[in-house]
Specification:
single chain, mainly alpha, 8 helices, 0% strand
Amino acid sequence: MGDHDHWLSVLLPDAWHAFEAYFAEGLARDWTWMMFQATHFTMTHVVSAIIGCILVLVATARYRAHLAASNGGVLPPSRFTLAAMIDGFVGACYRYSADVMGEEDAKRFLPFIGTLALFIFTCNIQGLIPGFLPATDTLKTNLALAAIVFVVYNVVGVWRNGLSYLAHFLGPKIGGFYWMAPLMLPIEIVSHFVRPVSLALRLMGNILADHKVLGVVMGLFALVVPVPFLLLGTLVAIVQTLVFTLLTIVYIGLALEHAEDH
């Protein structure tokens, strides 16, 4: 299979070609500039993202069923089921959030942080399944996720602190004045805009590299040899989900701080 092939494009080539051609009319980029040169338009990553959303919805339904059980979801499942995995996954997101922003804010932002982490993980793990492509090995998906994080933590900062949130960009207050503002303001603005770019590039680089290595190994050796690489790929998928989620938690936690505490 090629770099842009999907199991749908292999099993249903005509239908897949028509599907991509339909969306290419309005979405394909025909301009070039600097590093934005001619590129191959594909919908494989969109389909992978949709599959990731479906997996998250299925996992959510199973977890809700577990919470509605006779024990009220208080006791963890006795077996390692999907509900048990989601329980541990969401519990980890909550604990990390509580350590950074406190329990009250951790509960408030858990739906966003937990959903983000689940989506990234389900996209990452698809790269380990033959015939699937991880939606997170392309910059388009990752920049969209990072842009959402960027908007959320800045909106949260203004919502919690009002216009005093802007004092975060001015540096420390010395003698009642922000003397270092001319120096700190451009530095802080650049650093904040670099955050989503670094989030996107870090996730894409690691997932893309892992997917390429696994593809080469499985192309050379179909049995036994790819097993260690599959285990390593699973670890990469987990670690990259953890890194993206932790940085999101840290950014939101910093935005929630009062300016005088920053």
